[in-house]
Design a protein that fits this description.
Layout (H helix, E strand, L loop, with lengths): L8 H7 L11 H11 L1 H30 L6 H5 L8 H11 L8 H20 L4 H16 L7 H32 L4 H18 L3 H11 L1 H7 L5 H29 L7
Helix pairs in contact: 3-6, 5-6, 6-8, 7-11, 8-12, 9-12, 10-12
Protein name: DUF2182 domain-containing protein
Organism: Mesorhizobium intechi
Keywords: Membrane, Transmembrane, Transmembrane helix
């Protein structure tokens, strides 16, 4: 008898009659049991909610940013959208992220806000691209569970993947602070900012044809072989597996994110 059908006959005898509906639990308990029994549902809900929340926050921030910018692509359209009232903490967060120089806040508060901003962009843009990897892991995990093998929850894999993007967000926020500080130092350096933007575009364009970019793409396009060959029932190994996939994904996209400094960090049209 398969382990996913409750193992030995003694265990099955105890659970007979209510093993599927958890009738001795209340409604919340039954819902929790159903979610625990179906990790794919948990992952889909968590990932979907995270992506939706990230995009809503970024859209609201982009509208606020369009008011302060000159004429970046799409700003005319954004300024024509209705200005919805937002909670004070969001307005403060947007101000910390969008101001060209520190306001009355400390550098630590501004840095934390920028890290969160970049991380939200990573969730909104990069987590959907990780869907094939997450789905593949869930399929392998489902097969392993049917065989009675121990399985690490898919959210551990997602945590490893997002951990890489959190680290990258920290680096990008430091670069953002550096650019803002340089831009505010003296108007004489304004022409250099244009040169830096052009160089960012050039580097990003050349990188798209590099061997490293191609290698990263191959790893991202074929998650099954990587996940299957490195399968483990240890949470730390699964976390590292998610982190490795995050690194390959970062290798594909870091140059395009660099371009955002030239076209506008909060330009959602880009």
């Amino acid at each position: 008898m398969r382990l996913d059908q409750r193992g030995d006959s003694a265990h099955s005898g105890v659970m007979t009659g209510h093993q599927d509906d958890f009738s001795h639990l209340d409604r919340a308990g039954r819902a929790t049991a159903d979610i625990a029994r179906n990790p794919r549902l948990t992952v889909n809900i968590a990932v979907g909610a995270s992506i939706l929340l990230a995009w809503l926050t970024l859209a609201a921030m982009a509208i606020r940013g369009a008011e302060a910018r000159g004429s970046a692509p799409g700003d005319t359209f954004l300024r024509g959208l209705p200005q919805l009232p937002l909670p004070d903490f969001l307005e403060r967060f947007f101000a910390l992220c969008l101001a060209p120089a520190p306001l009355d806040a400390s550098i630590v508060a501004r840095a934390l806000a920028l890290i969160l901003m970049w991380f939200l962009m990573a969730i909104a843009a990069m987590l959907p691209s990780a869907a094939p990897m997450i789905r593949t892991y869930c399929e392998i995990a489902d097969t392993a569970r049917i065989k009675g093998e121990p399985v690490v929850h898919p959210l551990v894999l997602v945590a490893g993947y997002l951990g890489v993007w959190l680290a990258a967000s920290t680096l990008f926020s430091a670069l953002t602070l550096s650019v803002h500080a340089f831009a505010a130092s003296d108007e004489i350096y304004d022409p250099l900012l244009g040169v830096a933007g052009a160089l960012a575009l050039l580097v990003a364009g050349l990188y798209q044809f590099s061997g490293l970019k191609e290698a990263c793409l191959k790893k991202c396009r074929n998650p099954f072989s990587i996940l299957f060959s490195n399968w483990s029932a240890k949470p730390i190994r699964v976390f590292q597996l998610g982190a490795a996939q995050g690194i390959w994904c970062l290798g594909c996209c870091w140059a395009l994110m660099l371009v955002m400094f030239a076209v506008g960090v909060m330009n959602i049209f880009w």
